[in-house]
User: What shape does this take?
Amino acid sequence: MTGDQVHLAALLNHGHWRLNAACFGGRLALPNWHLADELVAETGAQCDGGWWPDDREIRLRKDLLADLSALAGVMLHEMVHQYVWEVARRPEDGHGLLFTTVATVAGRPVGIAPPLPRHVEVWPAVTRHQEV
Ligand SMILES: [Zn+2]
Assistant: This one.
């Protein structure tokens, strides 16, 4: 790892630690990180982040580093997936009722509104844009 990569991992670990303490009662273990120029979901759509449970990895688009608020939002979204997989052990839920419930509770301490029913997969970005 280069010096920049070490600092970046420390930044991401710190962000995860803060959100984990504030929003998940500290119940999540640190994941691995992967930053990519582009991310493609299983649907073929471009996405900002993802939770890869087999690697225990949160993947993030590199350009999120230019907008720390957006980075935190995507990180929180992926941490909800991590919670659903590793704490609730309900991987089949996807963006279902459990995801929505956990996202609603997790967003409250950091002032993020609950997911909108048709935009759960992009929460909290749509919520943030609608509040502007
Ligand atoms: Zn998602």
